[in-house]
Amino acid sequence: MSSIASRFRLRNARATFSYTSKTLLIGLSWVPVIAYVANHVVWIGVIDGSSMTPTLNPESNGLAKDVALLWKLNAKSYSSYKRGDVIVLRNPRDPESTVVKRIIAFEGEEVRTRFPYPESRVIIPPRHFWVEGDNIHSIDSNTYGPIPIGLVTARVQTIVFPMNRWGSVPKVGGRDPRSAVVGLSNSSYTKST
Amino acid sequence: MATRGFRYYTTSASKFIRVVAAIHLLHTYVFEFAITGGLSMLPTLHTVGDHVFLDKYNHRLGRNIKVGDVVVISKPTEEHTRICKRVAAVPGDIVYCDAMPKAPMRPGLSDDLVGLSSSMTNVRTGKYIKIPEGHIWILGDNAMASLDSREYGPVPKALVVGKVLWAEYWGPFDWLPNWPRKVGSNIEATDLKVADLLPSSHSRT
Lengths: 193, 205
Known about the structure:
The structure holds two protein chains of two kinds. By secondary structure, chain A is of the alpha+beta class. Chain A has two domains: 1-40; 41-184, Umud Fragment, subunit A (Ribbon). Chain A has five helices and eleven strands, in the order αααβββββββαβββαβ. By secondary structure, chain B is α+β, with helices and mostly antiparallel strands. Helix content of chain B is 16%, strand content 25%. The longest helix of chain B is centred in the first third of the chain and has 24 residues, at 6-29. Chain B is elongated, with a radius of gyration of 22 Å.
């Protein structure tokens, strides 16, 4: 099967139906590869909402939305995450939507929860995270509790747009883990970001 | 002697990755055959050797899941693992979590003692739980030997990978697999509401 470039070099190439349909089919056959890259390697995403203000979407109007790179490689591997990573996860209360939050605590750690969580202290179950939004008004683990690794879809490491905040997402923001996690110095996970 | 040139290998490689990506897409979003094992779904599924057909297209992320469906979900307390259980309650239902101590699994297994309160205990305390929105309550058919929502609590629907439609048993010592059998709901969804089960205040005369 010759490549598309060589077809254009052929002297007798014409826009026939068979040529168009063959080229279209070859193009379509690459769609699953692009879908694989989009779901398992890296893709681009527009951040919506104000739960990660001021780290992401600092503008209060809904028009200036940040665009970020979503890294999906090793997204389901628990040990690849560090404290302070910003992640994209499926909303536990609505499986069709996703939310963006920051990791505060890992499995086995005890967290001092905030309103409206019913208990004041909670131990994170195995392979779960405690996530919180940088904005104090965010709906996060303080509402729906620790989230399992199976819900995590991607990590947000780089802002692509707007250009004045281009670069890595800040690793600090929201509640300081030293105040959120009881006994952070004894944790087997990295203590600081 | 003519050797296969650079163009042959790049073309073959591009065909290969396109085919593999298409099959991966099919397996993740449409359907998959999976092998199940374990005692927690007896007698519906055998301990070893059952190959199940998973419908992902209609039931990924918990879409169209009803009480009585057998679903495969990502295990909440372990990564890259899946478990197969039956849906016992959907959002809005109230379940009673029994207070029996969990049957010991294999000795020495440091297993997922999640507990339904903040302390991780080995004994489930009996309590009524209302399933929050977006979550389901899963239960193994062999409740005595099953790690399910009685430990994990209500499980987010987004963890659902697919629904089991058929199972086909090919025993370890059989020459040929058995005919596929339909794995269905053994629970008929009724229109009973909680109010129907509570004592009514106006009936005594």
